[in-house]
Design brief:
Blueprint: H1 5-15, H2 17-28, E1 35-39, H3 40-44, H4 51-58, H5 60-73, E2 86-90, E3 111-122, E4 125-135, E5 141-145, E6 164-166, E7 172-182, E8 196-202, E9 214-228, E10 231-247, H6 259-269, H7 274-279, H8 290-301, E11 306-307, E12 313-314, E13 320-324, H9 330-340, E14 344-348, E15 359-363, E16 370-374, H10 376-379, E17 384-388, H11 395-406, E18 409-414, E19 417-422, E20 426-431, H12 444-447, H13 452-455, E21 460-464, H14 470-492, H15 500-509, H16 515-525, E22 531-532, H17 534-550, H18 561-577, E23 582-583, H19 585-602, E24 604-605, E25 610-611, H20 613-618, H21 622-641, E26 646-647, H22 648-657, H23 662-674, E27 678-682, E28 685-688
Parallel strand pairs: 1-2, 8-10, 13-20, 13-21, 14-17, 17-20, 22-23
Antiparallel strand pairs: 3-7, 3-9, 3-16, 4-5, 4-6, 4-7, 7-8, 9-10, 11-12, 15-16, 18-19, 24-25, 26-28, 27-28
Helix pairs in contact: 1-5, 4-5, 6-16, 8-18, 17-19, 18-19, 21-22
The structure holds adenosine-5'-diphosphate and magnesium ion.
């Protein structure tokens, strides 16, 4: 026998009299959030030796009815009726918290809690719970309770007629929303596919969660048969009827760091060769690429996000792009980082789900409702998003990615959906050159299908070329072959004692820091907020100024303020590796080294050998822009003299006098035409396009 409503009334009056009065007060003032939140562990488990709690878990359907009645019977000082107020239960004991992948038929109709990340939400729409029908014959109104998704009609009217019409304005509805909860990405190791479950939310629970939120949902496990209307199957889909939602604010705290861990981490961070150790922990099976590995390690440690007094926010997350020839281990690196990062989401530009990289709003095929689905960068909130072949991403993602990388939000406004999703993650992306191989003599912006503005949002862009070199090739080959050899042996002789010689070989491809400890190390270090020392500040300043000063009047500008911010972020991460609160000159030197080597690969104009950030990101060097400007002026001058426009031969002649070769001039002329900045009224004659 389960407890009657009066027991529930006693419970509410004993533990929640104050909350009930507050609720009554709000109802009196017209608020319609009619819910009372009950703490399961602290109150329900205490009252009468926890009997109510046990009953709720086992027989939630009947118990919730009794609890609701009991709440309605509770007295309040305002004398307001509490009819229809929902008791909502939170903070269930951990034994009742079930992993999504562990849900079984034994959980059916039980009250449980699940935890995960919100993947999809539909728009909030009314659902009829009591439908009013008018008899076509006698006009009598009949009410039918509705608890399924398909509308149930009355069987027969008093007068014998079986024809009815729905009367929406007399029917009673509640707000309803369906959401999809998915397992945390960080709980999946080794490329497992995350599992998910649908949750139905109603009334005051609707419209409060967004894709990307981390939540606990408490509710009843239900099943519905698969298939459609007349052809229902005996196989069932599980879903949860939500009773309450708890929002979570987790960052890296999900790691339990014991005192012993802490000791180990501090010892590690103080070792002389910590940066080498860190580098040798990132993908030891991949030969070389030390700069990239260090950059990735710094990305995992992260910079410090800042909020300036004027409200501007500066991200702390470091974005890295790997561009390069096929077969240089880009994909392998990304997959490795996925395994080792404390929290990461791996996807390809094309996207494994319909939501792609950012987010999408689509109409549901089955019920026609708009659904907002989180993409990889939203699911990776507070972690790392790993995107392979980013150059193949969808059109929608291209525009949304700008906002996602700099502001770290994704705004969606479509149909009934209006949301700003958080995407506070670092991006590690890989791209292949359009023409298969990277060409050192053309600008990067021309070689991969990413816009200059998007490229400029990456803190570091690495070019990974596959250039033959005897010594390196030999080492690489021996490294890869060793791995293959060892991989097989390790399988065979898992438990037996290995020979010394083999042990040495293995130690070379083993991560220098145990991955489990490394994750804890990162989590621990991310709670440190290093500040620039005066010395470090001077170093960065002088680096910046020295590069800028190379830019004499009218010569290429080698570096922009964006790179300055990148250097600070990287230096912060470098200090975090040592668990240091101060950024030293060495930190700055370390990252300037990487930044320089990166820029040298992409930002040197091959024509002049000079540094030029414009060349890197737009593919048009300062010199080239100057030439374009000169040619335009020549056309304009010639237009003054010639009625029909500037003849091509004369343009070329004048340009030659200004030091521009004929081939370059022709190239620029066709570019101008292409961009619509010049046109040919007649063959061989040019005019500059003027704004009317
Ligand atoms: P990409 O994504 O750049 O086209 P992959 O990551 O698919 O290349 O790598 C192709 C193969 O070559 C992988 O099996 C990888 O392990 C191997 N490989 C390439 N470069 C290296 C390297 N430096 N060290 C070890 N393995 C390498
Ligand atoms: Mg690849």
């Amino acid at each position: 026998m389960i407890s009657c409503p009066e027991v529930w009334r006693d419970f509410f009056e004993k533990y929640y009299s104050e909350e009930i009065n507050n609720l009554a007060f709000r109802i009196k003032n017209g608020e319609n959030k009619r819910a009372l939140y009950v703490n399961f562990i602290e109150d329900l488990s205490v009252f009468q030796e926890g009997k109510l709690g046990e009953e709720l878990v086992e027989y939630p359907d009947e118990v919730l009815v009794h609890a609701e009645k009991g709440l309605a019977q509770s007295t309040n000082i305002y004398g307001v009726s509490l009819e229809g107020c929902k008791p909502r239960f939170q903070n269930l004991p951990s034994t009742k918290r079930i992993l999504i992948r562990d849900l079984r038929s034994s959980h059916l109709s039980k009250f449980i809690a699940i935890e995960g990340i919100v993947r999809k939400v539909t728009e909030v729409r009314p659902r009829v719970i009591s439908a009013a029908f008018r008899c076509s014959n006698c006009k009598n109104i009949v009410y039918v309770a509705q608890d399924d998704s398909t509308l149930r009609y009355p069987y027969e009217c008093r007068c014998g007629s079986k024809k009815f019409q729905l009367v929406p304005e007399k029917s009673i509805s509640v707000d309803s929303q369906r959401v999809k909860i998915q397992e945390y990405p960080e709980n999946l190791r080794g490329g497992e596919q995350p599992q998910s479950i649908d949750v139905i939310l109603e009334g005051d629970l609707t419209g409060i969660i967004n894709p990307g939120d981390r939540v606990i949902v408490n509710g009843i496990v239900r099943a519905k048969p698969r298939g459609f209307q007349q052809r229902l199957l005996t196989h069932m889909d599980l879903f949860i009827e939500g009773n309450s939602i708890e929002m979570l604010q987790q960052e890296y705290e999900e790691f339990e760091i014991t005192e012993k861990d802490k000791e180990e981490i501090i010892k590690l961070a103080n070792s002389d060769d910590i940066y080498e150790k860190v580098v040798n922990t990132i993908a030891p099976s991949i030969y070389g690429h030390e700069d990239i590995k260090l950059a990735i390690a710094l990305q995992l440690f992260g910079g410090v996000p800042k909020k300036l007094p004027d409200g501007t926010e500066i991200r702390g997350d470091i974005h890295i792009l790997l561009v390069g020839d096929p077969g240089v281990a880009k994909s392998q690196l990304l997959k490795y980082v996925h395994r080792i990062a404390p929290r990461s989401v791996y996807t390809t530009g094309k996207g494994t789900t319909s939501a792609g990289l950012t987010a999408t709003a689509v109409r549901d095929e089955i019920d026609g409702r708009w659904t907002l689905e989180a993409g990889a960068l939203v699911l990776a909130d507070k972690g790392v998003a790993l995107v392979d072949e980013i150059d193949k991403m969808r059109k929608e993602d291209r525009s949304a990615l700008h906002e996602a990388l700099e502001q770290q939000t994704i705004s969606v406004a479509k149909a009934g959906i209006n949301a700003i999703l958080k995407a506070r993650c670092a991006l590690l992306a890989a791209a292949n050159p359009k023409l298969g191989r990277f060409d050192r003599y053309s600008p990067i912006a021309e070689q991969i299908e990413l816009s200059p503005t998007l490229l400029s949002r990456f803190d570091l862009i690495f070019v990974m070329t596959d250039e033959p070199g005897e010594e390196r090739d030999q080492k690489l080959a021996s490294h890869i072959l060793n791995m293959h050899q060892l991989g097989e042996m390790l399988e065979k002789f898992k438990d037996s004692n290995l020979k010394e010689e083999l042990k040495v070989k293995i130690s070379k491809i083993e991560p220098a820091i145990d991955p489990e400890l490394f994750r804890k190390y990162i989590a621990y270090a991310r709670n440190i907020y290093p500040i620039l020392s005066e010395e470090a500040k001077k170093r960065i300043e002088s680096f910046y100024v020295s590069l800028r000063s190379k830019a004499k009047e009218n010569s290429p500008v080698p570096i922009t303020a964006r790179q300055l911010e990148s250097i600070v972020r990287l230096a912060e991460a470098s200090a975090r590796v040592r668990l240091s609160e101060t950024i030293t000159a060495e930190d700055v030197d370390r990252v300037i080294g990487i930044v320089k080597r990166c820029l040298a690969q992409i930002a040197v104009d091959p024509e002049t050998g000079e540094w030029d950030i414009d060349y890197a990101y737009t593919g048009t060097s300062k010199r080239q822009r100057d030439r374009i400007f000169t040619i335009k002026k020549i056309i304009e001058e010639l237009e003054e003299l010639n009625e029909n426009g500037a003849p091509e031969e004369e343009i070329i002649k004048k340009a030659q006098e200004a030091g521009i070769e004929e081939s370059k001039t022709r190239e620029i002329l066709s570019k101008l035409k292409l961009m619509g900045e010049a046109y040919c009224p007649k063959y061989g004659v040019y005019r500059v396009a003027k704004l009317k």
